[in-house]
Amino acid sequence: EVEISMEDTREQERVLISSSSSKTSRHSKLSALRKFLFGVGGAASVMPNTVLGFYLQIYLLETAELSPGLASVVIFVGRLWDALTDPLIGFLSSKTDTKMGRMRPWLLASTVPMVAAYVAIWIVPAGSQSVLTVYYVFMYCGYQMFLSCFHVPYTSLTVYLSTDSGERDSATAFRMVSEVAGTLIGAVAQGLCISLFVDKSSGCTDFGDEPKHFVSQEKKAYFSASCIVGFLMLIAALSPFFGVREVKDAAVRREPLSFFQGLRYTFRQWPFVHLMMIYLCAWLMVSLVQTNLALYVHYVLNMESQFQYVIILLLVVVVLSIPMWQLCLLRIGKRTTYVAGISFILPVLFALLYITEDYNYVIWIMAVISGIGMGAAYLVPWSMLPDVIDEAAARDGVRRESLFYAFFVFWQKFSIGIALALSTLALEVFGDYRTGKCSQPESVALTLRLLMSAGPILLILLSFFFTWRYPITEAKRSEIKETLESRRNTKATKSNRMSTNRKPKERKRVGQSENQRAICETVMSETETETTDGDMLYDSSEPTGDSFITEDGQTQP
Fold this sequence. Notes:
The chain has 19 helices and 2 strands. The protein is an all-alpha fold. The protein has a two-stranded antiparallel sheet with strand order 1-2. The chain is globular, with a radius of gyration of 31 Å.
C-alpha cells in the first residue's frame, strides 16, 4: 500500500508537469493574425525613417536651400537627440506596469504627436537660413523623441509576445516584411508625388540656377507625400496596440535598474556587445548608401528623373528576399545567414566606385543584387537580439528587455547620426557642393563615390569579424531554450501543487474495510517515522480526528 501511494504521488507530479508543459506550449503559440498585427506596427517607424533617409539630405540642400554645413547640423542634432532619448524611454518603459501592459500604453500615447511632428518637417517656413535651421532642428528633434516613445516599447514588445523563441522569430519575420513593405509604400508615395508635382523639363536658368517654380513644386510635392505617409503611420502604429496582448514569463523576474546601472549591465553582456557591433556596422553601411544615393544617381549617373524607380526596385527585392532569409535562419543558423546575405552587397559596392554615366543602366542590376543582401541586414540582427536577452535571463534569472532594446538602438542612432552628418559636411569641405545649382564640380562626384563604396566596404568587413566572434551558436540557443522551459515547467508545477494543497480532496480506497484502511495508515505512519532523509508525506504526530475499532473491540484514535 505504501508503494502504491508513492507511485500515485509520482504519477500526480508527472501529470502536473505534463499539464503545465502543455499549457505553456499552448500559451506560447501565436496566431497568424496576431503576428500580422504586431508586424504592421514596424511600418510606423521604418516607413518615415526610410523616406527621411533617402530624401532628407537632398530636401534640405535643394528645396529648403540650406548650406551643407547647416544641413549637417540639423541631421546631427536630430540624430543625437534621438539617441539620447532611447535609453531614457527604455528606462521609463521598464518601470511601467498598467492593466494594458508594460509597453502597449506607450504605443497609444506617442502615435499622434509622432505623426504631427513628421508632417511638420516637410514644411518650408519663410525666413533666413538661421531661422530655417532652428525650425528644422526643433521639428526633427520633436519627431525623433516621439518616435523613441513608440519604437523602443514596440521593439521591446517582441519578448512579451510569447515565451517560445521560435514564435518570436516568426513574429520578427512578419515585422521585417511589414517594415520593408512600409518603406516601399513610403518610397512609392514620395516618388509619385515628386513625379506628379515637379517638372524640370525646362532646365536651368542662364546663370546655372534652378528656376524658382522648381522649388515651389518641390515644396508642394514633399508636403503632399508627408500627409499620405503620416496617415499610413497612424494606422500602422495603432495596429499592435489593438491586436496584441502581453504575455508574462514565469521563468524570469524583473528588477528595474537606474540608467547608469543599466548601462553597466548591458555592456557587461558580451553577446550583446558583439551583436551591437554587428548591427552598428551593417546599418552604418546601409545608411551611408541610403543617404547619398539620391545625389549619386543625380550627379554621377545623371539619372535624376529615375531615382525614385531605382528605390522602388531595390525595396521590392528586399521584401521578396526576407522569406528566403527567414528559411535560411532555420536551416543554416543566424550567423551563417548574415554572412551569406551581406556578401551579396560587396561586389555592388566595388562597382559603385567605377560605374560611369555611359553604363548607368547597370544600376538596375545592382539594385536587384544589393536588395537581396539588404534583406538579410534588415532581418538577422533583430532576430538575434531576443536570443541575447534570453541568454542573460537564463544566466541571471532576470529579464531586462527594455534596457537591451534601448541601448541597442541608442548606439546605432548615435553612430549613424555622426556618420550622416560627417558625410553631408564632406560634400562642402571636400566636394565644394553649391546649393541651388543644376550642376556640381567633379569633386562632388568623387566624394560621392567614396562615400558610397570605400566606407561601406570597410564596415562590412568589420561586421564579419564581430559575427565570427559572436558567442551564441545554434547549440547554445537550444541550451538556453531548454533552461528557460525547465524553469517555466518547474514554477507551473509548484503553483499547481499549492492550489491542490489549498483544496484537499478525500479519496476512498475501493474494496477496503475500515479496519484494513486503519491498519494501512498505521503502517504508513510508522514507515514515515523511520524515514532518515526528512521527507515526510504528512506529520503523523498530529491527530486526524478519525477513529477505528481494534480487533479486541476498543476504540483507538
